[in-house]
Amino acid sequence: MNDPEIEDDALRPQKRGVYWLPNLLTTTALFAGFYAIVAAIDGKFENAAIAVFVAMVFDGLDGRVARWTHTESAFGKEYDSLSDMVSFGLAPAIVTYQWGVVRIAEYGPLWRRLGWLVCFFYAAAAALRLARFNSRSTGQDKHYFEGLPSPSAAAIVAAFVWLASSQTNIGLPGLILAFLVTAFAAGLMISRFAFNSFKQVDAGARVRFTHILLVPLAFVLLSLYPPVTLLVFFGGYALSAPLVWLYRKVRRRARA
After folding, report:
1. Answer CATH for 19-197+207-255 from 1.20.1250.20, 1.20.120.1760, 3.20.20.10, 1.20.120.80
2. Which of 8, 49, 163, 207 is within CB 3.0–4.6 Å of 211 for a Cys-Cys bond?
3. What is the dihedral of CA 212, 218, 223, 227, to 10 degrees?
4. Tens digit of pLDDT per residue, the chain (256 long)?
């Protein structure tokens, strides 16, 4: 015999809604990415680069807050991915386009087309990187990322544009270097290199006193030379996986 209370629960419509706190942080990251695009269109490239890093901060917070408060949802994951595409896919590409393509076009239409293609390649690589991550997130090793994460790639591009925008006359070699950096970051996003995710790091573990001193040193360098410090940090992270792969390959050949 059927229980009428159970039948009423089954027929009762399920509550619909989203968790406001993690999605609010995701919306803030999305706004920062949108502002980076607007600032680049207005020619405020330093503000655009800073906005990309602000988006990185809030993008890192939304997932952690969702896990801490047990408010993870499928909606939040999809929303976060779309926000990442704007903040770390479209925004860096448009910032580079607004800053570099206009300048490199002065050297001829061929350079302008190459710069335009590099910017599109970066946006497409970010989309492919996010799609691959979403499709393989369940079976992937949590300790490593396959390909450079899109926030790190965006940080490299934003830091380089931030640094180069302070130069009055960067010249053709500097513009070529900027587009090579952008293409390099894009290529690493769709590569098969394994990048450390640092998710295995225990925040409550004991560390040496000398390691603690690195934290104030990093803040001092960041306050004095923000674009240089950020470019060195994220550039070093981007080079870590290819260098480790090359070292292991050379070592295997030496043993053979």
Report:
1. 1.20.120.1760
2. 207
3. -160
4. 445 444 444 444 444 555 778 889 999 999 999 999 999 999 999 999 999 999 999 998 888 888 888 888 888 889 999 999 999 999 999 999 999 988 898 888 899 999 999 999 999 999 999 999 888 766 666 778 889 999 999 999 999 999 998 776 788 888 999 999 999 999 999 999 999 887 666 555 565 656 666 677 777 777 778 899 999 999 999 999 999 999 998 888 888 7
